[in-house]
Amino acid sequence: MTTRNSAPKVSILVPIFNVEKYLRRCLDSVANQSLKDIEIVCIDDGSTDSSPEIIQSYAKKDSRFTVITKKNSGYGDSMNKGLEKARGEYIGIVESDDWVDTDMFESLYSIATKNKVDVVKSNFYFYSGTGDTNKKFQLVNRVDSEKIINPIETNSVFFSMPAIWTGFYKKSFLNRNSIAFLPTPGASYQDTGFNFKVWASAKKAYLTNNAYLHYRIDNDNSSVKSKGKIFAVVDEMTDMYRFAKETKHFEQLKPILFQRKYEIYMWNYGRLTSGAAREFITHVNRELKSDKENGLYDTTLLTRKEKTLFNLIATSPSLFYLLKFTTGSKKLLKRGTKKVARTVLPAHHSLHKHQMAAASMTDKIDNLSYHIDVITRLNKK
Q1: Which of 34, 95, 275, 343 is the most buried (most CB within 10 A)?
Q2: From CA 98, how far away is CA 44, in angstroms rounded?
Q3: What is the largest CA-CA distance in the chain?
Q4: Closest CA to 67 of 84, 83, 52, 79
């Protein structure tokens, strides 16, 4: 059992914000770990429900609990404060609406120390209280599991779901590489940047097929369900590029970053409503043009379809927008003919005056028809 004056084997960070409904189950699962030499760092991000009282009740009973109370400033800032406070040899993360198996941190600590790795990554369960469903998700690549890998060489890890709470991180490794969260307001996809920084820095990592954490999918207040924060993913990508440029292997990371940009930006675009999507895709157009000018437009890891879509955004964002939000765009995709394009574009000409002014209507129709034909053919393959 650790004391206040000795460093524990593991520090478990629990970021908390208005999660009274699920918090006790989470804290019980952490407090009851088979590995006793742990500290539990609860970071309350200005909760307005009974979460603070629940946290304090655990801290009074168990000296392993440390409580950080602060004004609401967002997930990234909360996690950074938790990392600064943590005294453990290794760092684990448990979101406050999730819960974990009792052997999670004993098992991960054993794997990490036995193999002398910077990071351990595991699978997890999708959990829903509705019907009490619990389904294992294969996060790690089976081919690369149960062995030590170098993430730069085994780069498939960059393209998996971030799921940073399935990770187990050596604290000295995080400190040595200045790995932290982007402290943007709210819960704004900071796991994306943190996950990238970890893989970009780790020389030795271990992927295990075991699953320990139960990821709740029935919390309607979860930040992943927010439709706001249009440009939060842009902030994360900008910080990822900054971090990568400071490493010794930026050229190896460049195609990985561009592929991640495609996946992240397309995901973000797909969840936005019409007006927000138009604003976002206009920004992406400017960013891709800048990438081309600065030698960052690296499509090495993109598929033909992905290249076509990004090229369309880079050249004609208004036409890309039409493919999703214009009435009749589904028929446009299916038929891919100039005749249909000519019936759709004039009706929406007033919505795109600033884009249309740069070229003739005929050129736009031809361009749209070409891209529709290409995308349609690719969709059939």
Answers
A1: 95
A2: 16
A3: 76
A4: 52
